[in-house]
Amino acid sequence: MQLSSELGKNKKHRKPWIKSQQRWTWIITILWMLIANLWPPFGLYGFVCMFTPIIIALSGRGKMSCARICPRGSFIGKFTGHISRKCSMPAWMHKKSFRFALWGLMMGSFILLMIWAVPKGIHTLGKTVLYFMEAATFIAFLTGIVFKPRSWCTICPMGFTSGNIRELLNKNYKNR
């Protein structure tokens, strides 16, 4: 009886999930890269893809962005499905220490690139965001070919950040 009442309480506090947009959000990745390569300041819209998962996680919806919206995840899933080797990733890649190291490497690199690019102006800043995201997409694409199509999604730094935010919010909610 107590279990069912606890489930009912948790259901009341859940935020509604949006319907998955994964069927078409891959188009955003392609359009953004095309436009940003033609007009570099458009590369700054890459920040939307970076901050959306964080904002959604902070709203109490955890990794919903990864599961329902992520344009890169949609792109990788769509275009690596037929060419993927469909192998499992090694166990060490699933460890939190590896995901944290990858997060630190990518965030550290991004911060250093931003420190370098900001004084150079909006064109350089837009190109820098674009090149960084293109490199991450290329790595994600390779990961999808070598392993299962959306393997990148299990180690993605934005997904890692969203998951950690979810854990912190859940811990705070339980401590009330």
UniProtKB/TrEMBL annotation:
Which InterPro entries does the record cross-reference, listed alphabetically? 4Fe4S_Fe-S-bd
Q: Which Pfam families match?
A: Fer4_5 (PF12801)
Sorted alphabetically, the keyword list is: Membrane, Transmembrane, Transmembrane helix
Which ranges carry the 4Fe-4S ferredoxin-type domain?
Answer: 43-89, 137-174
Residue ranges spanning the membrane: these are 45-62, 98-117, 129-147
Return the protein name: 4Fe-4S ferredoxin-type domain-containing protein
